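QA checklist item 7 of 12: single-chain prediction sanity check.
[x] sequence parsed
[x] length recorded as 180
[x] structure emitted
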Amino acid sequence: LGAIGSMMGSGGLIVMDEDNCMVDIAKFFLEFIIDESCGKCSPCRIGTKRLYDLLCKITDGKGTLEDLSTIEELCEHIKSSALCGLGQTAPNPVLSTLKHFREEYLAHVVEKRCPAGVCKNLLHFVIDPGKCKGCTLCAKNCPADAIMGAVKAPHVIDPNKCIKCGACMDNCRFGAISKH
C-alpha cells in the first residue's frame, strides 16, 4: 500500500465503488482528523479546517480551479510542518483523491456536477416527459411543492423550489425521474 501512496493506519480498510464521491470521501476523512486533532499545532488545527472548508466549497458547487491549487499547496504545508503523525498524514486522503480522481474534482468545479450523484447541492432532478404518466404521485409527495403538472400529463420540477430530497424519485412508479 505504501508504494501506491496509501497506508493501512490502524488496520482498517474501506471499500468504495462508483457510487462514492471522492471529494465527499476526502471531506469525511478530514472531518475525522479535525475531531481527533489535539489542537497543539496550527498546521493541524487550522490547516485541516481550512482544507475541509475548501472541500465544502467544492461540494457546494462554489469551487474554482484556483481552489484546487490552494488545496494542493496547503496539503504540502501541513505535511511538512505539523508536529505529529496525525497532522503529517492528514492531507493524504485529499492528495490521493486529487491524484487518482482529479476528473471528479474537475466535474465539481468546472461542470458543477457530482459524477456519483452524492453532493446534494450539485444534484438536479429531471422528469422524462416520455415516461411520465401524470399519475401525480411525485407532486403529492414533494414536501416543497416543486412539481407541477395536470393529471395524465407530464409533470415538471421547478429547480428553484426543489430541495433535492429525492422523494419524487422514490415515489415514481414509472422510472420517469432521474437525478443528474
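[x] summary fact logged: The two ends are 34 Å apart (CA to CA).
[ ] second reviewer sign-off
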